[in-house]
Amino acid sequence: MQPAKAPTISAHGAAMPVVGYGTMLFPEPERAVELVVHAIECGYRHIDTARKYGSEQWVGEGIRASGLPRDELWVTTKVTEEDAEADDFARSVDTSLKTLGLDYVDLLLLHWPQPRVPLEETLGALAKAKREGLTRHIGVSNFTVALLDEAVGKCPEPIVANQIEYHAYLRQDKVLAACARHGLIVTCYAPVARGRVLDDPVINEIAVAHGKTAAQVALRFLVQQPQIAVVPRALEFGEIEEDIDLFDLELSDEEMDRIGALRDRNVRVVDPEVRRPAWDVG
């Protein structure tokens, strides 16, 4: 297919492509590398991974196999909350870079809040990684309004993004407003609620009207909002192609409102009891 070109959104000096390729729950290694290569061939310039996913090695191999120059690609990885103490954090970053086979990542995130470690300590380690050139930008993930306010106030370097679960079945207005107030990018994981929104009659009606798929409408609903990027996972070549083919589609205000109303279902598909913070409702 003709490679798509995703626009970028900017925050505090970062310019992130609005559609990334998510690599959580990846398949066997050989297939994983093929999927990363195909995503890059289809125009993806943003790859999202994490230590916790176990996909960093395959992402790195896929990048090298693609032949794409490093400076043309945005790579995000994350430090797990188990490594929130400064020394552990530094070791995790070093391990991620060695596993990826990269000298730096474009965005380094704290994967989940860790209440047992002072946030100042973890933020200091995050900022140090940036100052040492191990990452170009830094951010957080799964941070609530209160945690986000605290992180922005205490971090020695600018935070550029908060990666959260957000999709057509989950209202996140409070967190979105906090991110907007701080000038941050919102990156949406599970942007089709792990498939749950794809059978929705409203989304499918709109998809038929535009000659698009339900996934494309659900993703377009997100990226048509200000300062939002998405990182859908896809395990088939056709799905990879589908998920980035969004930019000849424009939803009307009425269609955006109809899809937006579905968020009152308040469905979370990622809600681990052992590490979830006190979520903001609405």
Briefly summarize what is shown:
The protein is of the alpha/beta class and 282 residues long.
The low-confidence parts are: none
What is the level 1 CATH name?
Answer: Alpha Beta
- Derived structural class: alpha/beta
Number of helices: 10
| SS elements, strand count | 10
Mean of pLDDT: 96
From the 3D coordinates, which CATH architecture would you assign? Alpha-Beta Barrel
Characterise the protein shown here:
- A hairpin with a 2-residue loop joins strand 1 and strand 2.
- By secondary structure, the protein is of the alpha/beta class.
- The chain has a single domain, classed as TIM Barrel, CATH 3.20.20.
- It is built from 10 helices and 10 strands.
Keywords:
282 residues, alpha/beta, TIM Barrel, eight-stranded parallel beta sheet, two-stranded antiparallel sheet, 10 strands
Please specify the SSE layout and strand pairing.
Elements: E1 8-11, E2 14-17, E3 21-22, H1 29-41, E4 46-48, H2 56-66, E5 74-79, H3 86-100, E6 105-110, H4 119-131, E7 135-141, H5 145-154, E8 159-165, H6 173-181, E9 185-189, H7 201-210, H8 214-223, E10 228-230, H9 237-244, H10 253-261
Parallel strand pairs: 3-4, 4-5, 5-6, 6-7, 7-8, 8-9, 9-10
Antiparallel strand pairs: 1-2
Helix pairs in contact: 1-2, 3-4, 7-8
